[in-house]
Each structure stands twice: as structure tokens, then as C-alpha cells.
Amino acid sequence: MALAKVWAGSKLHPEALKQLEGIATVITSSTGERVAHGEWEAEAVGADGLIVILGTTAITGPVLDRLGPQLRVVARVGIGVDRVDIDAATERGIMVVNTPDGPTESTAEHAIALMLSLCKEIMLGDRHLRAGQGFPPYGSLPLGLEARGATLGLLGLGRIGGRVAEIARVLGMQVLVYDPYINVERAQQYGVELVATLDELLPRCNVLSIHSPATPETYHIINAQTLAKLPRGSYLVNVARGTLVDEQALLEALRSGHLAGAALDVFDPEPPQKDNPLFSLPNVVCTPHIASYTATGVKRMQVMACEQVAMALRGVRPTNLVNQSVWERRRK
Fold first, then answer.
1. CB atoms within 10 A of CB 229
2. Where in the sequence numbering do the catalytic residues fall?
């Protein structure tokens, strides 16, 4: 029996490739999933499976059609599938899988790292020294925030939010959570206080960290109105999705001094414009969507993605099948 063909957006870890041994031949992209002119699509035509590495790669109905009728499974390395048209894939009998457990630890650690960097004014001090200005006069820099005793508000208590809560509690922070999809028992599991509404959460936060999925309901959930409900001098951290935050409203809240600072790993759009005004503010820490980009995190996600693809190609129901309804009418 001929091996299946799997296209991958970048070179895969040897442990990941082992999952597809004897099942598929893996073709690694030479274009790096470049969007312009759809270079990667030409490489992937005829593939039975796709392993999509970049969260910015759009998998639409027309893209699926161009790739051919033999395509059976699309794997997203990571959690977010907001750039995959799930309905279009389901309509065509194509399975969509992801790796929801893969990025948890690395992303949670990144959220905490951003929070501490922001609240301890690390980047501000670094820039001051690199500019050759020596030690600033005492009292000239904004005062930082001590984590112990401070209140961290979490918008979402999924895998990543839960791990952030665990680390924050070790630091001595009080953790409050708003998540309409969890119950009190899950909140108790993490030792956090569950509040009933976002309006109840925001006024009590020294730091707000966002861990919600990107859905039509969460689009710009952090906007001028919600930012105004945060206490003056509070901080915002976002490692979830850029579309959850109205960047113009965030910019205004930072410029006015209502927010003491923001730390962002995600933007809207992505990649962000080179002249994004957030980059010019001294009280903003930015990273280029690398929260899960660690040696361990990348390996774990790639192995999980290949495991899911291997299951799909063997005719076994993938454990992380996103579009559950496709199973009975999937392409074979």
C-alpha cells in the first residue's frame, strides 16, 4: 500500500517524524508557509494531510479546494484554529485537529514572564541603560508592582489560564477568574475565586491576564468601556489572541496613564504593522507571538500534531478532533 503524503509548514522534530513512520511521507515546506501568492499551496497540492505551523496561515474553503480532493486532515500545531474555516472543512469531509495540551506550560510561563517584566519595569530600566543614560535619579522611574499580595485577574481558566493561576499563587498573588464556561469546582481545583461577570472582575485587578479563545463573542472584549473599569495604574497581559483587545482603546488607556502598562505577545492584525504606535510607548513590552516557542514546547506540539495526523490517516478517530461531526462522513 502506498504511503500517504503529508505536507508540513516547517521542519519537524525527529520524534515527531517517528509518529508518521510507515504511514506517510513528509514534505517540508521550502517557503515557510509564506502567504504571498500562496507559495506553500503549490507544494501541498495532492497531500493527504497538512501540518500547519503558523497561526497566521489561513485555511479557507478555496484553499482546501485548491489542495485537492484527497486531503483528509488538517492539523494545527497549537490550540487556536481561528484561521481554519471549520465549517468549510466539515462540509468537505476534512478532519481538523489541534494540540490543545502542547503549548500550556511554555505559554503560561511566558505570561508570567511578561507580567513580571512589566510590573518590575525591567524593559524600561534596560532601555535607560542601553541609551547611555546611566542610573536614573531616584524616583524618576515609575514604581513597580510587588506580586505578593497583588490581585491577578484571569479572563479564562482553560489549560493555560489554569497553569498561570498555579504559578501566580506560588508568587503569593490572589487570583480572580471570570470564565462563563467553568464551574465552581474547577475554580476550587486551582484555588482561585470565580466571579460571575467581567464587570465584577475588572475593578478588583492589579493585573489582568487574558486567556480566552478568539470567537465572535470575545472579539474586542477588552475595549474602551472594559478598560475604564480596571483600576487606574493596573496592567494588562495578553498571550491569547490579538482580536480580543481593541488596540486603539488600549493605546489611549496607556497614553492617558489609566493603565500603567501592557505586555503583548499577540496583535491584530498579525504580523503587526511596523509603525504600530504601541511599539513607541515605554510602558509596553512586546514579543512576536512566541509564548509557546521553547524547545520543549515546540517538540511537544509537533509530536502531538503528528500523532493526531497518524490516527486520522489510519482510520482511527483522533483524540483532538475539532470538528466532531465530520467523523461519520469524513474523506477516506
1. 16
2. 241, 270, 289
pTM summary value: 0.92
* Residue 2 confidence (pLDDT) above 90: no
CB distance 322 to 82 below 8 Å: no
CA-CA distance, 32 to 237, in Å (whole number)?
Answer: 29
158 φψ region: left (φ > 0), alpha (ψ -120 to 50), beta (else): beta
Angle between helices 104-119 and 159-170 (to 10 degrees): 50
Give the Cα separation of 40 and 30 in Å (integer): 8
Q: Phi and psi of 165, rounded to 5°?
A: -60, -45
Helix (H) or strand (E) holding 177: strand 174-178
pLDDT at residue 90, rounded to an integer: 98
CA dihedral of 24, 30, 36, 40, whole degrees rounded to 10: -20
Please, what are the domains in the chain? 4-102+295-329 (3.40.50.720), 104-286 (3.40.50.720)
In this structure, what C-alpha cell is assigned to residue 291?
509564548
Instruction: Quickly count: other Cβ atoms within 10 Å of residue 250's Cβ.
Output: 22
Report the alpha-carbon distance of residue 234 to residue 70 in Å, rounded: 52
CA of 277: how far to CAs of 29, 122, 251, 274, in Å? Answer: 34, 20, 8, 9
Q: What is the pLDDT of residues 215-256, one digit of tens each?
A: 999 999 999 999 999 999 999 999 999 999 999 999 999 999
The answer to whether residues 157 and 179 touch, using CB atoms and an 8 Å cutoff, is yes
Question: Which class for 183: exposed (0-12), middle (13-18), buried (19 or more C-beta within 10 A)?
Answer: exposed
Cα torsion through 284, 161, 97, 92, rounded to 10: -70
